[in-house]
Specification:
By secondary structure, the chain is mainly α. It is 41% helix and 3% strand. It binds heme C (HEC) (4 copies).
Amino acid sequence: MTRKSYWALMIVSVMTLFLLSVGAIYAASAPVEIKMASPYEHKKSIAVFTHQKHVVDYRITCGQCHHDDKGQPLTNLKDGDPVKKCFDCHNKPGELKGKEAKGLADKELRAYHANAVHDNCVGCHKKYNKENKDKGKSAPQKCEECHPKKTQE
Ligand code: HEC
Ligand code: HEC
Ligand code: HEC
Ligand code: HEC
């Protein structure tokens, strides 16, 4: 190997290592916003979730949304820990409601992705709005507040 190509190789290696480490840091920390697309066809516009605001501004702890394969809250979750997508476990596509949902236990319904996500998001928002009624605060409960009309996309 010539001296020149040796240096070229060194520079390329160092740059690669640098980019890899930046990539790792980026992937490890909790994202600011998540467009929650899932691998099935969406009827509504895809909801955008303000992850950082929920954690930093609304002070909601990780374990209120993330849990393990038994449904136990991940209370010790830290920035950098790997986190599974809701769909990895609540993996039936879309939302089950109406006639088909009748008589099913909450747990069976939550096998459906949107039922589980709605339970979490809308469940907390409803509770929050009830508790803060007189403070003029509100978290979105209506469909269009999270799924804006498709023409706006
Ligand atoms: C607090 C926010 C929020 C509200 C309010 C809400 N949703 Fe959702 N919904 C979500 C999220 C997040 C998902 C999962 C990501 C996605 O599919 O957009 C979802 C998924 C869905 C899905 C499955 C995906 C699809 O598009 O087919 C349907 C259907 C749905 N919602 C319908 C509704 C309807 C109808 C209402 C009103 C009764 C509603 N949602 C209210 C956040 C919300
Ligand atoms: C209010 C609910 C909520 C809170 C609080 C919350 N998360 Fe999340 N987090 C989510 C949702 C929803 C997703 C998107 C999951 C999906 O797309 O299925 C997510 C995604 C993530 C991801 C990315 C996973 C991926 O593959 O894209 C990481 C990392 C993460 N959260 C870490 C954390 C950590 C660390 C905390 C606490 C400091 C935290 N979260 C608090 C709801 C929450
Ligand atoms: C590793 C698998 C796994 C992942 C990932 C997962 N869940 Fe769950 N979840 C479960 C199990 C198991 C239960 C307990 C059975 C039940 O009550 O449905 C549960 C329960 C729930 C419940 C009812 C209990 C409660 O805490 O209120 C909600 C709501 C829920 N999950 C929403 C979500 C959301 C939203 C995400 C993504 C941020 C998510 N889950 C990610 C496995 C998982
Ligand atoms: C444990 C409680 C909790 C959970 C779970 C939760 N939220 Fe929220 N959310 C809040 C609070 C508190 C606010 C702020 C209300 C206010 O402004 O006073 C909020 C506000 C919002 C807003 C409007 C302001 C903004 O940040 O964009 C959206 C949109 C929203 N949430 C979407 C979601 C979605 C989607 C999910 C589920 C993936 C979710 N939330 C889960 C508590 C929660």
